[in-house]
Amino acid sequence: MRETINVIIPVLDEEQRIGDQLTRLLEQHDVQEILVVDGGSADRTCEEVARFDRVRLLRSPAGRGRQMNRGAAAASGEILLFLHADVVLPPDATAHIREALARPGTVAGAFTTWTVSDSGRTWVEPWLHLADFRSRYTSLPYGDQAIFIRRLDFFRAGRYRDDLPLFEDLDFSQRVNRMGRIATIPSSVQVSGRRFIARPIYYLFLVNALPLLYKVGFTANTLSRLYGRHR
Question: Angle 56-61-67 (CA atoms, 0-180°, nearest 5)?
Fold first, then answer.
């Protein structure tokens, strides 16, 4: 029997993006269910989602880990794809997902990234691709790479930790990596560079320094305080 694919999107105040994102996803071939998990938006995000009859709107306390776990618990499909509101899948994403998970020893996967400016060319454009370079060579994907995994393996890995203020994606990838191979799809997802362009110096610090500090043993709570001081 063919495994079904569910897309889970955690959102918070994404009224400007979620409509276009859902329109694109509904055009994707082979997506059985789309679940949007709102973390308490103060704008019209939920009203935008409600316009789409084929999309399920769920609510959760704020926190990306909590929201993704809420979506996974409600999903009915065998394959879960976790997608940020500002990340655009390639048109053939589901074919890549099925092909990757069919390989022996592969338990999960993620796409490479290509970061773009929302407002055309900008002086920071060359710096936008630092994280893209990382996505091509890491075996531990981050959330903006559209991580996918079978639902059974997601729960076997222990779900996302909902008590981490940062790096819930890296923590999850580390646990999944111990279970088997995480495939890297050479086809790229398109990632919005909005956060980089808004605070380029801070973003360079975030992309380069914080992950390294986390990997050498600094706790997510400690880094969250550091993150806050550099916002």
Answer: 50
Q: What angle do CA 14, 223, 209 make, to 5 degrees?
A: 90
The model's pLDDT over 141-178, given as tens digits with 9 standing for 90+, comes to 999 999 999 999 999 999 999 988 878 998 999 999 99
The CATH number of 5-229 is which of 3.40.50.300, 3.90.550.10, 3.40.640.10, 3.40.190.150? 3.90.550.10
* Domain-wise residue ranges, the chain: 5-229
Rounded to two decimals, the pTM is 0.88
Give the pair of three-digit tokens for residue 99.
Answer: 């092909």
| Model confidence at 231: pLDDT above 50 | no
Residue range 11-58, pLDDT digits in tens: 999 999 999 999 999 999 899 999 999 999 999 999 999 999 999 999
**How do beta strands 5-11 and 79-82 pair?**
parallel
